[in-house]
Amino acid sequence: MVARGALMPMQRSEPTGTTVHCVPDELLYTVEGGVARVTINRPERRNAMSFEVIGELRARCRQAKDDANVRVVVLAGAGDQAFCAGADLGGMVATAGFYDAHRARGELAGLFTELWELGKPTIARVQGFALAGGFGLALACDLVVASTNAQFGAPEINVGLWPYMVTVPMLRSMPPKKVLELSLTGRRVGAEEAAQIGFVNSVVGPDQLDASVDALAESLAAKSPAVMQMGRDAFYQVLGMNSSEALGYLHALLTVTSMTEDAAEGMAAFAAKRAPVWKGR
Predict the structure, then answer these.
(1) pLDDT tens string 33-49
(2) Among candidates 52, 50, 4, which has minimal Cα distance to 29?
(3) For the domain bounded by 8-221, which CATH number is listed?
């Protein structure tokens, strides 16, 4: 990925209850124009996520969440072969005891939760492979922009496993029958089919990928950060509710949102035919 601004190698992180030491430059982080760009920088491993990299991703999610200058997060993989080919926990798990191995596997579930609770829109910039845990990572983002060379899939069944935790972001991104089909067959899905299924938002040529992601990120960063957080949080909240509960919750939230300064500014700007000036409150 060609990032804007100086890329910063992440050399340590502090995920809750865990101390990890990431190899320098394996995760890159930069913030510019309200957009935080997080890049898994392991192209020689097709950007597979080690235990340490997953810990760093979780830490950067928290960093972006707490940084008022960040309004959008873009997640990418370095090089042109892969967004992320999955989890690369083999070395750590092979030498760990049962409990430590179990805890390591759970870090991926924690990463999905960090993304959903980030409070700011997230975009997956996908080129090449997005497989297994990498498939889940892309789907855990709010929006997915894919190159025409992208390939998605949950191939765990082919090696005697199952995409257990990945099932959740899959179910949040496509019909249940399609989730089951992809899990049962382990087959790969191209970008065009992914868009037809509905878990990819747009498909562009490889030479247009960065420009398309940048335009989308810029558009999202220009919205009210306060209303963006409230609305995005509400979207994920109602996913687990029945219709009557969801409508009651959203009715109340509309009244709360209408009382914010940004809502008043937005309506005033619309009436005056000018661009709004958001205060984030």
Answers:
(1) 999 999 999 999 999 99
(2) 4
(3) 3.90.226.10
